[in-house]
Amino acid sequence: MTHRSGPLRGLTVVELGGVGPAAFCGMLLADLGARVVQIARPGSAAVFSDAHLRFGVVNRGRESVAIDLSRPEGVAAALRLVDGADAAIEGFRPGVAERIGVGPDACRERNPRLVYGRITGWGHGGPWSDRAGHEANYVGLAGGLAPVSRAGEPAAPPAGQHGDIGAAATFLALGVVSALLEARSSGEGQVVEASVVDSVAARMALAIGAAAARAADRVERDTGANAPFGDTYRCADGRFVAVAAIEETFYSRLLGRLGLTGHPALVGDRFDRARWPGMRQVLTEVFLARARDEWCEVFADADACVSPVLTVEEAMAHEHNRARGVYVDVGGSVQPAPTPRFSRTPPATPGPAVPAGANSTNVLRGAGLSAEEVSALLSSGVVVAGPTGGDGGRAAT
């Protein structure tokens, strides 16, 4: 088996099912050194094309077992994996895991120390818990769209990063690790639930506090979100710069480098919303006069909170990101490096995604199933071995 490193080394997590945030949570845990066994549906093997394996970032660093959970023998095999795990995570809609037979009660009855993490959009409980939904629905209900939308303009739908990934998956990973830490002293596991709605609400703590302060002061002021000095501007080449000159020091430097010090539209109470359209118009016209990279040169030593808006490809090549190793090569594709960083137990570079079922034989044998049991599961189609024949080693990390 391939050596693993990182602060979670020695922990085993079974990823029971789910896409999007559940898979991202599994990636986070695997990145930090946990052994994560991902249960894939046998029919999903076709999805794991060469391109998927090379660029399937959220599925990296795992072992994969393809099990048909619609059949009792498949559920029994999955539960055998849970028996020896420290944690299990799933991202099914409410009630699905219980209906399949891999819900928290079924798993923790066999393994009381198990931490069972689950993630949903609306949460388990509440009048909307059974509704379908996607990122924009969850984030909108949590109040997360309005603060990033300009007055009178449609809210821009999030791109799957704010709620699913940036909030819920990250909070679930934190919750699972926290419960594992508690289980060391108590000897008991527990169920950890993260919903997108709950998590987005938690991430809005600063915005909620600012809104409450404005209401208490009874003044129509803003902290700078969506202000003209906290916006993006198109440049002469069609690319953009980001401006976040919220504090007075940075705002003064911004005006100085733009040659706008003392401009009547930009001096005075810049937090007065009534003045924002005029301020934005002036800044818009000025930034259109030069290309993005020219502006970057202008502000290179200004410390005025002005930076380029980069494409993903540009971000990978940027000098700062390259110097810090923000991106790493994983199986021939450039991907984000594991984060956060650790001084004593740094994680290794993750291994690429493996074909669905690539580790079926080894993982099931490691869980205590006999060669005859595994052979019967493979023969019946309950378990499927991937293109490597099911004998692939653990995903490199």
What's the short story on this structure?
The protein is built from 16 helices and twelve strands. It has 397 residues and is of the alpha/beta class. The strands form three sheets. A seven-stranded mixed β-sheet has the order 6-5-4-1-2-3-12, with helices on both faces. A three-stranded antiparallel β-sheet has the order 7-8-9, with helices on one face.
Task: Briefly note the structural class of the backbone.
Answer: alpha/beta
Strand elements, count: 12
Cα-to-Cα separation, first versus last residue: 11 Å
Q: From the alpha-carbon coordinates, what is the Rg to the nearest angstrom? A: 25 Å
What is the count of DSSP helices, taking H or I runs of 4+ residues?
A: 16
Largest sheet: 7 strands, mixed
Could you please describe the fold and organization of this structure?
With 397 residues, the protein is an alpha/beta fold. It has two domains: 249 residues, 3-Layer(aba) Sandwich (Rossmann fold); 69 residues, 2-Layer Sandwich (formyl-coa transferase, domain 3), CATH 3.30.1540. The strands form three sheets. The chain has a seven-stranded mixed beta sheet, sandwiched between helices. A hairpin with a 2-residue loop joins strand 10 and strand 11. Helix 1 packs across helix 7 and helix 6 packs across helix 7. The longest helix has 26 residues. The termini are close together. The relative contact order is 0.16.
